[in-house]
Amino acid sequence: MNGILGPVRCRAVAAAIVAILISVQALVAAEFTLQLSESVLASAERKFGPEARQRLADWVKLVASNKKKSDAEKLRLANDFFNQVPFVSDAEHWTRRDYWATPTEMLATNGGDCEDYSIGKYFTLLALGMNMDRLRITYVKATTLPPADQAHMVLTYYATPDAVPLVLDNLQPIIKPASERGDLIPVYSFNGDGLWLAKERGAGRSAGGASRISLWTELNARMGKEFL
């Protein structure tokens, strides 16, 4: 499991996000079905070994076996499953300054950074049947990590639109309400339906479509085509 220094290496999303806000066509539907073809599994095994296939098979099994669970149970399962993956910076893992991996890429390569944990949990919960409007991938500033106000990303869950969200975080294995995470300052959040600017601990103000984030759009374009 990654240590406390791992997430510090998570790239400064704040600077990057200014450069990647562009207008492109939305690519994300309101539902996500987890389907990994044999060709994807075989390619993952050839490139990364039998352990890669097993991790992907475990992911498929988790989704298939837990669709009738409560939201609370689904949140815990997704959070625990992806938090097992070791932290690896984009520079080390992908030799790129910033790369948002698909869940398949993250699990097959057995590594990822803060964005990848959040994205993996997000798509897993959609596959488990959770409503997209309850989930947001949220960019925050982590005040307790050096340097001050370190850029970080988490997944947040809203039981109702006006509720204080729950935070799924690779830094903190226990899911807590945002009101108990004073170390995180929300900046913006998004899902497949939209992009919101933060409003203290609430849902925030709409700022348009999530397709304005180019790395998000590129990730969705790769979904289902990994390693082919």
Account of the 3D structure:
The protein is α+β, with helices and mostly antiparallel strands and 228 residues long. It has one domain: C8orf32 fold (Roll). The chain contains 9 helices and 7 strands, in the order H-H-H-H-H-H-H-H-E-E-E-E-E-E-E-H. The protein has helices at residues 5-8, 13-20, 38-48, 50-65, 71-83, 90-93, 103-109, 114-127, 214-222; strands spanning 135-142, 150-157, 166-168, 176-177, 184-191, 194-197, 205-206. The protein has a 7-stranded antiparallel sheet, with helices on one face. Mean pLDDT is 84; it is low at 1-5, 12-29 and 206-211.
CATH topology: C8orf32 fold
CATH architecture: Roll
What is the H-and-E element order? Answer: HHHHHHHHEEEEEEEH
The overall pLDDT, averaged over residues, is: 84
Number of domains: 1
Query: Helical percent range?
Result: 25-40%
Give unreliable regions as ranges.
1-5, 12-29, 206-211
- Shape from CA axes? globular
Alpha carbon gap, first and last residue: 29 Å
Give a count of the beta strands, DSSP E runs of length 2 or more: 7
Report strand %: 15-25%
Tell me about the largest β-sheet: 7 strands, antiparallel
Q: So what's the CATH class?
A: Alpha Beta
Number of helices: 9
Q: Give the neighbour order of strands across the main sheet.
A: 4-3-2-1-5-6-7
User: Cα-atom Rg, whole angstroms?
Assistant: 16 Å
Structural class: alpha+beta
Give descriptors for this structure.
228 residues; alpha+beta; C8orf32 fold; 7-stranded antiparallel β-sheet; globular
Compact summary:
The chain is α+β, with helices and mostly antiparallel strands and 228 residues long. The chain is 38% helix and 15% strand. The chain has a single domain, classed as C8orf32 fold, CATH 3.10.620.
